[in-house]
Amino acid sequence: MTLPLEKHKRATIALGTIVEVSLWLEPGTDPSPLFETAYQAIRQVHALMSVHDDHSDLGRYRLASAGELITIHAHTLQVLEFAETLWSLSDGMFDVCIGDVLARAAYLPEEWISTVPQDFSPRQPLEITPHEDGTASLKKQANTLIDLGGIAKGYAVDLAIEALQAMGVPSALINAGGDMRIYGATEAPIHRRQHQMYVPLGYLHNQALATSGQPSNLDSTLDKLPIVDPNTRECLPALAHPISIVANTAMAADALTKLAWLNALNPALLERYHARLIH
Question: Which 3 state secondary structure label does DSSP give 37?
Fold first, then answer.
């Protein structure tokens, strides 16, 4: 007789949010090293891609002079390549080179505004040269401030899920501030906060989910979101309710929510990332 899997759950603060990890394990399995495996993956992404950390890949890019080459980790390379592909596929509507706008909106330190002039001209593709060891060189573009934001958080969820799969964990769910992914036989009920209540969205099974657009002030729709319109170089106002995307990875789900807010999400992109929109 096969015994049912036992659920174990822990939470910690990482990536600027609460990260919850749920594991479904064979009875008698010690969950501690498995939780540590997941959180180690998440901490690594934070250390590499936090724009606030001067020693991270993005921090060193922020501090570099125009034309300087920055060596970036293989994980940072994967996220940047994903971002540049989506930038191209969306005709520039998905753009991670919008840190100056976020600084003007007080989502990033205001002192960083002086590093990027106000007169904006359309940017060129990032110059990335991969190396044989998996790292890459990233050339600093003048007047460019990169912020990977939510897609770095989504990538961290994906990386942790892959690490747990490699460890033989039968089923797991990771939720990092609304970017979540589950695998295995388990289905998880999902809800979305709208105003002062939680709305059920169904169940998630072997997929990822991301939600964007929740106003910081639940009584106002005038708050600005950290979602930038590349055409106007302005943050978008919050709407009445957030937008959710189900996709094959948490990174893709997070990125596609931004395009949905910009009215730049098309059927080809949904198909490419096995995604669907939840209003």
Answer: helix
Residue 184 phi, psi dihedral angles, 5° rounding: 100, -170
Rounded Cα gap, residues 65 and 60, in angstroms: 10
User: What is the per-residue DSSP string for 135-146?
Assistant: -EEEEPPTT---
- Sequence-distant (≥ 6) Cβ neighbours of residue 187 within 8 angstroms: 203, 204, 205
- Residue entry with tokens 């060193």: 60
Q: Residue 42: which residues within 8 A CB-CB, separation 6 or more?
A: 14, 15, 19, 156, 157, 159, 160, 176
pLDDT band at 218 (very low <50, low <70, confident <90, very high): very low
Helix, strand, coil percentages (3-state) for the chain, rounded to 5, are 30, 30, 40
* pLDDT tens, position by position, 165-177: 999 999 999 999 8
Token duo for residue 132: 């044989």
Whether 101 and 110 have beta carbons less than 8 Å apart is answered as no
Mean per-residue pLDDT of the chain: 88
CA distance 20 to 23: 10
User: pTM higher than 0.85 for the full model?
Assistant: yes
Report the pLDDT value the prediction gives residue 119, as an integer from 0 to 100.
Answer: 56
pLDDT the model gives residue 215: 53
d(CA 96, CA 221): 25
